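Exercise 7. Given the components listed, write out the predicted structure of the assembled complex. Treat all entries as one system.
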Amino acid sequence: MTIVLDPLPYAYNALEPYISKETLEFHHDKHHAGYVNNTNNLSKDTEFEGKELEYIILNANGGLFNNAAQSFNHSFYWRCMSPKKTAPSAKLQAMIEDSFESMDKFKEAFLNSAAALFGSGWTWLAQDGKELSIINGSNAYTPILDHKKPLLVCDVWEHAYYIDHRNARAKYLEGFWSLINWDFVSSNLS
Ligand code: MN
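Answer.
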């Protein structure tokens, strides 16, 4: 069994005007596909061949870890967005208010973290029991490494926004916020 590239859960133009068709074509068909292909090539004829992605993430290192984690992170990121308007579940809303005081304060903290992440990486909302936290991770970081439950992620590698916004990461982040699939985020709570 090899790792499979998940198709996007919506059409390539579904996230316009916030994220263009051209960005999604490059980001999914070139970047994400590349990580999946590299994961399969690097695990071939090793103890990792045929293993689940999470097993590879927790046990491999170097290039194989990077590509496996990037494969997981991108599949998760696509599902964090939707062209449909959604809202957090009552349970998620209450947990966000417990951890960040209000939805507005959470939005501010999440987007400020993403704006401040130096270089390439991912800004996560993760669950650890009753606690929710925002985690900025560099490169291929994923909260699975710290045994925390990923709820939401924003890709802040430049390839996520450079075609649409050049270097203006903040504009991409505002658009990302409008696209969040709160049904998916809520469903990730354990
Ligand atoms: Mn990416």
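Discussion: The chain has eight helices and three strands. Residues 27, 31, 74, 155, 157, 159-160 surround manganese (II) ion (CB under 6 Å).
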